[in-house]
Amino acid sequence: MEKKVDSCSPTGVLEDFFKSEDFERSHSCKEPNIDSANERNSKQGSRWRGLAQLFRTKSKKSLANLQSFGSFRLSLRSNSMRENVAVAPDFLANGNSFNDRSPRKVFTLSELQTATKNFSTENLVGKGGYAEVYKGRLPNGQLVAIKRLTKGTTDEIIGDFLSELGIMAHVNHPNTAKLIGYGIEGGMHLVLDLSPNGSLASLLYGSKEKLTWDIRFKIALGTAEGLRYLHEGCKRRIIHRDIKAANILLTKDFDPQICDFGLAKWLPEQWTHRTFSEFEGTFGYLAPEYLMHGIVDEKTDVFAFGVLLLELVTGRRALDYSRQSLVLWAKPLLKNNNVRELIDPALGENYNVRQVNIVLLAATMCIHQSSIRRPQMSQVIQLLNGNPNSLMSKRKRRVPFFTKAFHEEI
């Protein structure tokens, strides 16, 4: 006998959604048909409210109903277009990830409270506009970072949670943060592997022992590899939108891992860019075209990466306490090839001159005012590896440090 599904149950809500035209449309990731969008708003809104109700339930048992459905995709309304949110509960449950030490799981609120000493302030390691991050320890001794979403209405928090969860479920690279699990009891939580050395920002600006040049260059290369993966290596292009020193975690071997996908967005193949009316991100890292027109694409991340390279060389913040921009401070020095004034005094003479010139060359290209003139991350990696062929000949003549980086003897 065929088992009937209660349309009011969590399972029924999802099955209704999977059978809908909205699911098929969002799964195909095609640009929306504006003429027919209004006709679907009411139906889509009711399905979203039903799913939101599912996540409002407080027990792990409710979310367990999702595990049998495999990957699913929600299409949420935004101001300018439909926001595709891809979620893969089966992928999470099976632990099919780069980190096989600990299968991804659903955590109960009591487990998260025990791990963080009831979310005590002494375990609070980061706090932003949208979330709080706590250090925790699992029963097996594994250290974790638990991100708790805090800003917005219940539906907004659920939407942000699903969006970030969906992206992280599909990200699998040594230079991206590792998702261990998640929890929905008592709030929306993401559980990640805790990097022993903390963030790049904490070591670059908050540590008495300054990072050596070798480690800084390793961080530059690894972060570039992680960004290239997001832009070119994933099944769907991912724009991170918040690349900064605080969002680069460092393993015990100082391998960088890009974290915090709270602002990350999918970019379908047929779309050249996305446009946003509300500004989100971190001042000092925001590309000019985003500030002026709300335009976001891969070059938005490239600009932020260029700022990060300047931070690694100079030891200065992207935006210091006097609100001075690192980019505006550095550009005249870059234009005049004034390398000595750009190098972090904490490094002394302990750095590789050729590598510094190469990093400054890459930074100069990445922070170009025109997004079209900025390189792709694959070109940046070639450049950092000492291959000048990634630059067009006309760029070589116009960019400072080219001769120093590739033709001068050390």
From TrEMBL:
- List locations, semicolon-separated: Cytoplasm
Against PROSITE patterns, the record matches this protein to: PROTEIN_KINASE_ATP, PROTEIN_KINASE_DOM, PROTEIN_KINASE_ST
Domain Protein kinase stretches: 119-371
Cite the entry's keywords alphabetically.
ATP-binding, Cytoplasm, Kinase, Nucleotide-binding, Phosphoprotein, Serine/threonine-protein kinase, Transferase
The residues the record assigns to binding ATP are: K147
The record, for InterPro entries, names:
Kinase-like_dom_sf, Prot_kinase_dom, Protein_kinase_ATP_BS, RBK1/2/STUNTED, Ser-Thr/Tyr_kinase_cat_dom, Ser/Thr_kinase_AS
Q: Where is the composition biased (Basic and acidic residues)?
A: 23-42
Major location, coarse class? Answer: cytoplasm
Q: Which reaction does it catalyse?
A: L-seryl-[protein] + ATP = O-phospho-L-seryl-[protein] + ADP + H(+); L-threonyl-[protein] + ATP = O-phospho-L-threonyl-[protein] + ADP + H(+)
Q: Does the keyword Mitochondrion apply?
A: no
Listed EC numbers:
2.7.11.1
Region: Disordered, residue numbers: 23-45
What broad class of enzyme is this?
transferase
**One term of GO molecular function:** GTPase binding
A cellular component term (GO) from this record?
Answer: cytoplasm
Claim: ATP-binding is one of the keywords in the record: yes
The entry assigns this protein to a family as follows:
Belongs to the protein kinase superfamily.
Q: What does the record note on quaternary structure?
A: Interacts with ARAC5 and ARAC10.
State the PANTHER family in the record.
Answer: OS08G0249100 PROTEIN (PTHR47987), PROTEIN KINASE FAMILY PROTEIN (PTHR47987:SF12)
Name listed for the protein in its UniProt record: non-specific serine/threonine protein kinase
